[in-house]
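User: My instructor asked us to take a sequence, write out its structure as C-alpha cells, and then describe one feature of it. I'm not sure where to start. Here is the sequence I was given:
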Amino acid sequence: MKIYIIAIISLLLLSCNSDKNSIVGNWQIISLQSDRGNELKEGDYSYTYAFRKDGTYESHFQGDTTQGQWVLDSKNKTIVFDEGFKVIKGFYKLNSKMLSLEVKKYIGKREDASFGTIFIKLEKLQ
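Assistant: Let's start with the prediction itself. The C-alpha cells for your sequence are:
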C-alpha cells in the first residue's frame, strides 16, 4: 500500500513540474488582442519570449528587449511576469507547442485599465 501512495505522490509532483519544464524555451507570439478590440495581426510584428529554467525571461518586440522573472502555478494554472514596477498576471493553457495566456497588466499594485484583459497565443520555436 505504501508503494502505491508513494507512486501517486511522485506522479502528482512530476505533473506539477511538467508545465514548468514545458514552458522553458523560445516562444513566438502568433496572436495578441485585448477585450477592448485592438489586435495585432500575424506578420504585423515580431514578438518573442525566451523562458529560462531559473525563472527568468527575456522578451523581444521590434528591437526592444525586456527582462524579468516568471512564476508559474501549475495547480491553479496561473502565471506572473514580473518586470519590477510592471507586472503581468493571469491564467494560462499549455500543451507541447502552444501557450495561451489571459492576463492583465499592473503598474505597481494598480491594474492598468487601458489594456483590459489581454489574450496572447504563443507557439514554441524549435
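For the description part of your assignment, you could build on this observation: The first strand starts at residue 25 and ends at 34. Try explaining in your own words what that tells you about the chain.
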